C-alpha cells in the first residue's frame, strides 16, 4: 500500500488516496479517514478504481473539470 495524497474535507475528515493491492488486483482507493472524539479510523465511504480503468476515470474527471468551468 502506498499513500499518494490527502485532502482535508472538514475539521474531522480527510480524503486519502492510496495505491493498494487486494486479492492480487491493484487499484486506486479513495477513502475517508475520520479523527474525532467519537471515533478515529476509516469510514465506510470509499471507492476503488482498478488500475486498468484509471485512464477512463481520468477522462471522466477532465469532463467534470470542463463542466465546472462552464
Along the chain, the helix and strand elements come as EEEEH
Roughly what is the average pLDDT, rounded to an integer?
94
Query: Which runs of at least 5 residues are low in confidence (pLDDT < 50)?
Result: none
Shape: flat
Give the number of domains: 1
| CATH architecture heading | Roll
Main β-sheet, spatial strand arrangement:
1-2-3-4
Helix content: 10-25%
CATH topology: Transcriptional Co-activator pc4, Chain A
Please identify which CATH superfamily we are dealing with. Answer: Transcriptional Coactivator Pc4, Chain A
**Radius of gyration, rounded?**
14 Å
Biggest sheet statistics: 4 strands, antiparallel
Query: Distance N terminus to C terminus?
Result: 37 Å
Number of strands: 4
**From the helix content, strand content and strand pairing, which structural class follows?**
alpha+beta
> What CATH first level would be assigned?
Mainly Beta
> What is the number of helical segments per DSSP (H or I, 4+ residues)?
1
Q: Give the DSSP E fraction (strand runs of 2 or more residues).
A: over 45%
Amino acid at each position: 500500500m502506498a499513500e499518494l495524497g490527502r485532502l482535508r474535507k472538514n475539521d474531522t475528515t480527510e480524503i486519502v488516496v492510496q495505491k493498494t493491492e487486494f486479492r492480487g488486483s491493484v487499484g486506486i482507493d479513495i477513502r475517508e479517514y475520520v479523527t474525532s472524539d467519537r471515533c478515529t479510523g476509516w469510514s465506510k465511504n470509499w471507492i476503488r478504481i482498478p488500475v486498468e480503468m484509471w485512464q477512463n476515470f481520468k477522462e471522466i474527471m477532465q469532463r467534470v473539470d470542463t463542466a465546472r468551468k462552464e
